[in-house]
Design goal:
The structure is a homotrimer. By secondary structure, chain A is an alpha/beta fold. Chain A has eleven helices and nine strands. In chain A, strand 6 and strand 7 form a beta hairpin. Chains in contact: A-B, A-C, B-C.
Chain lengths: ~270, ~270, ~270
C-alpha cells in the first residue's frame, strides 16, 4: 500500500472529473489532499481535450443530465483510446431509469478500470435489478460478515464479466478483480452522515490508478483503505459537540496528512 | 416541537431537492445532520421517479435555468399526486422576471405545503411586486417588533389565499397558516453572513414535513426554531478569530447534535 | 489599502458571479466574508437583469458550457453599458480550445476591468499560446524573482493593449495597468492545495472594484494583498494535524476578521 500512495505524492497526477454538483468541491479538495490535482469539465466541446491532458478520468452520475451524459461517454472513450484509467461511480443506479441506463451505457461502451459503488448500485448493474433506496445502499443488501463469502463471489464474477475491478463499499468493503478480492475493514459508520464520502473515494481512486498504472486492483484497494483509515483518524479527532461538518473537514485533513507508512500500518484487509 | 424532531430522527425521510448549485452541498449535509437522507436530481427525465422514491420534495429557484424549471414543475406535480409535502424557496423572486415568473408558476401549478422566503421574496409573490435587493431582504421590508402585527396579518392572509403555510424568515420569523401564526425569535444576525442558511432551512423544512404528515404548520415552525436555535448554539462556540466559515460548520454540527429536549427548551416562540 | 477595504465594508456591494460549480460556494462565502453580498445567476433569460441590480460582475470560465457562455457575454455587455466593473477569471485558458476561445471572446467583446489568472492562463490570452497544465500554472512559466522584470513588462504591455488591469497571481503576484505594477509578496504556497483560492480572489476583486470606482489598479492590488495576507494569517492558525480543509475555512475566517489597519500593515508590495 505504501508505494501506491508514494507514487501519488510523487507524480501529482492530474485527474479529470465529470461529477455531480453536490459534492464536486469536496472531490476537488480530496484530490488536492492526496497529492493529485483536479480539473472539472463537462461540456461535450471540451471533455476530450481535457481528458487528453489528464492521467486519469473519474465519471460520477449523480445529478447527471442530458448534456453531461454524452460528455461522459466521449470522455470515457477518449481515455480508453489513450489507455488512461477510468473510474465510474454509478450514484443512484437503480433509483431512476435514467441513472441505470446511463450507468449501463457507460459500462457497455467504455472500458472501465474500476466500478465503485454501494452494493445496491453494483447489484443493479450486475443483475439488471436492485432495491436502491435513493443514493444509499438498501439495508437488506448490506454486506455483513455472514454474507461476505457470497458477496466476494459476486464481485469476482462481475469483475470477470465486466473486465473492471469492482469496488463495493459498505460496512465491509470488497475490491475484486476476477481472481482476487480485498476485504477491507477500515472506515467508520459516521462517514455515511457526510455527503459525498463515496464520491470523494471515487475521485481518490482515479488518482491512485493514475499514479500506479498496471496494478489497478492494488491501487483501488489502497484508495479504499486510505479513505477508510482517514475516516477512522478523523473520527478520533471529533470533539463531543462536533458533527458531520467537522467530520467532513477532518477526513480531508487526515488525507492531507496521511503518510505512506501510516497507510501501510493502518490498512485493515484480508485477501480472499 | 420535541416529537417533530423525534419523528425525523426515527424515520430518516428521504428528501428530493432540486436546488441551486451554490449551496447544494450544505443542503445535503443539513439533511444528513438532522437525520434525514438527501437525494439531488434535476433532469426532467428522472425527477418524477426520484420524487416518487422520496417522502418530501424541496424546490429552490436559486440558479434556476431553462432545464430545471420544467423539472421543478414536473416534480412538484408528481409530489402532489402522491400527496408528499412540497417546499418552495423562491430565492431572489423579485430580482429577475424569470425568478418571479417561475415562482408564480410553481405557486399556481403545484400545491405547496410550505412557501419559505424572506419578506421581500414573499411580498413579491403575494403582491406581484417587491423591492428585492438580490437574494437578501430589503431593509425597508424587514419584520420588526412594531411591524409584526401587520406582517402576521399579511402572512395569514397569503396562507389562506395560497393554501400553503407561509414561512417568512428574518429578524423575527413568522410561520403561519390561515388561522394561526408562530412568531419565532430564535437565530442570530450572523447567520446572514453564511451563504445558504435560508436554503438549508428550506431543505430542513422538507425533512420535518416528510416525517410529520398532517401537521405542516407545526413541522415548519419546528424547523424554523431548530435552525435558529442551531444558529444560537453555534454562535456560542465561535472563537474570537472565527468567521463565517467556522460558523457554517458549527451550525451544521449543532443540528447534528441537537436533541429533541434541547429543541423543546430552546424554541423561542409565541403564537398569535 | 486601508480605505479600499473600508469602502467594501461600508458599501456592502452586491456582486453578480457567473462562475463554476466547483468553487461557487466558497466564492459566495468569500464575498460575505469581505463584507459584500453575493448573487449567482447564469441563465441567459435573467443575467442582464441580475447584472443591472449589482455593483460588480465576476465572470469565471471554469466548468463553462454552451448555456453559460452566451450568458457571460450578455452579462458582460450589460455591465459595460452600465459602467460597472467586470472581472474575468480565465480558468484553464489554454487547456481546451473552448476555454481559450471563450476567454478571447470575452476579452474581445467585453471591456474588462480586471483580468485575473495564473501566468499560463494570462500568457495564453496575451500570446495566443501557452503551456497550461490543467488549471494550475505550468512550472516553467512561474514568476520568480529573476523573471520578475520581464513579467512586469509583459503585464504592463498586455494591460496597455487590452485596457484591463492585469492580475497575474503566483509565488509573486503582479497587478498592473499600462503604467504601474504592484509586485506583491503576500500569500502562502499551501493556498494552491485548497481548491478555488484563485476563484475566491476573483470574486473578492469584483467586490473591491465595485466599492471603489475609479481606482481599479489600487482596488485589484488591495484584493490580491488581502487574499494573500489572509492566506498567511490562516496558515499561522493551522495545527499540526490540520490540512487543506481546515486551511480553506481559516482563510475565509481570516477575511471575515480582517481589519483595514491589518491590511494596511500586512500588505507586502512594491511598485515597479
Amino acid at each position: 500500500m505504501k508505494q501506491i500512495l508514494e507514487a501519488v505524492r510523487r507524480q501529482a497526477p492530474l485527474v479529470h472529473s465529470i461529477t455531480n454538483y453536490v459534492t464536486v468541491n469536496d472531490c476537488a479538495n480530496m484530490l488536492l489532499a492526496c497529492g493529485a490535482s483536479p480539473i472539472m469539465a463537462d461540456d461535450i466541446d471540451e471533455v476530450e481535450e481535457i481528458t487528453s491532458l489528464c492521467q486519469g478520468l473519474n465519471l460520477n452520475i449523480g445529478t447527471l443530465n442530458r448534456n453531461t451524459i454524452p460528455a461522459m461517454l466521449a470522455a470515457g472513450k477518449k481515455a480508453n483510446e489513450l489507455n488512461r484509467p477510468v473510474v465510474l461511480d454509478p450514484v443512484g443506479a437503480g433509483a431512476s431509469r435514467l441513472r441505470t441506463e446511463t450507468a449501463l451505457a457507460l459500462l457497455g461502451e467504455v472500458r472501465l478500470t474500476v466500478l465503485r459503488g454501494n452494493i445496491s448500485e453494483i447489484k443493479t448493474l450486475a443483475l439488471g435489478s436492485g432495491t436502491t433506496k435513493g443514493v444509499d445502499a438498501d439495508l437488506a443488501d448490506q454486506v455483513t460478515e455472514t454474507a461476505l463469502d457470497g458477496a466476494v463471489r459476486f464481485a469476482k464474477d462481475f469483475a470477470r464479466r465486466s473486465g473492471a475491478v469492482i469496488a463495493i463499499t459498505g460496512a465491509i468493503d470488497i475490491v475484486a478483480d476476477g481472481e482476487k478480492a480485498y476485504c477491507i475493514r477500515n472506515g467508520h459508520p459516521m462517514m455515511g452522515r457526510v455527503t459525498g464520502t463515496g464520491c470523494q473515494l471515487s475521485a481518490l481512486t482515479a488518482a491512485f490508478l493514475a499514479a500506479n498504472p498496471g496494478v489497478p486492483l492494488e491501487a483501488a484497494a489502497a484508495a479504499v483503505c486510505a479513505m477508510g483509515l482517514c475516516g477512522e483518524l478523523a473520527h478520533q479527532r471529533l470533539g463531543h459537540l462536533d458533527g458531520n461538518a467537522a467530520y467532513r473537514n477532518l477526513i480531508l485533513d487526515a488525507m492531507y496528512q496521511l503518510t505512506p507508512a501510516q497507510l501501510e500500518e493502518g490498512a485493515n484487509y484480508e485477501v480472499r
